[in-house]
Amino acid sequence: MVIPSGVVVLTDRGLAARPLVEVVAAAVRGGAAWVILREKDLAYAARRALATALRAVVPPGRLVVAGPDPLGGDAVHLSRTDPVPPDAGIVGRSCHGEPRLSTEDYVTLSPIYPTVTKPGYGPALGPARAAELAGDVPWLALGGIDSPARVAECMAAGAAGVAVLGAVMRAADPESVTAALVAAAGVRA
């Protein structure tokens, strides 16, 4: 099974410098191979329509939906307390401490660095502590991943990839920002 790796873009239409689907399409052109649809505040029909629109610009099978409803897709990313849906395919879970996988395939560990998107969220783990917490569990670094140097630090610590939100969503040129992060990751999944 292939799990999210390399540069994974998380959506936030409230932070997006342009319409969300345009930002995601640009990030994919820049090399992002996975996208996690958040937007949990949307009504079900609107969220499902957004998932459909994103599937048109994301590589097949590479759209992960945050929350226990895959919205017709094959991958979910769950909070600490979300139930695992039946037939979810790839399952990820957000962790802020030591991950313990049961039916999940990977975890995100956060925050790795202080983050502008969630000020005061922390304390920041740092890449080395995140790697220690993860042990043998495949993990994505999340939080404050806003530069190629930080991407390289996380990958050197053993992350399967980095999950990026603000750096891509806020970018005037999300394609070039993503391309620089992908180059630093050294992985194109």
TrEMBL record:
The keyword DNA-binding does not apply. It is an enzyme of class 2 (transferase). Pathway: Cofactor biosynthesis; thiamine diphosphate biosynthesis. Its EC number is 2.5.1.3. GO terms for cellular component: cytoplasm. CDD domains: TMP_TenI. Residues 74-168 form the Thiamine phosphate synthase/TenI domain. SUPFAM superfamilies: Thiamin phosphate synthase. GO terms for molecular function: thiamine-phosphate diphosphorylase activity. One of its GO terms (biological process) is thiamine biosynthetic process. Signal peptide: none annotated. Keywords: Thiamine biosynthesis, Transferase. Condenses 4-methyl-5-(beta-hydroxyethyl)thiazole monophosphate (THZ-P) and 2-methyl-4-amino-5-hydroxymethyl pyrimidine pyrophosphate (HMP-PP) to form thiamine monophosphate (TMP). PANTHER family: THIAMINE-PHOSPHATE PYROPHOSPHORYLASE (PTHR20857), THIAMINE-PHOSPHATE SYNTHASE (PTHR20857:SF15). This is Thiamine-phosphate pyrophosphorylase. It comes from Actinoplanes digitatis. The lineage of its organism: Bacteria, Bacillati, Actinomycetota, Actinomycetes, Micromonosporales.
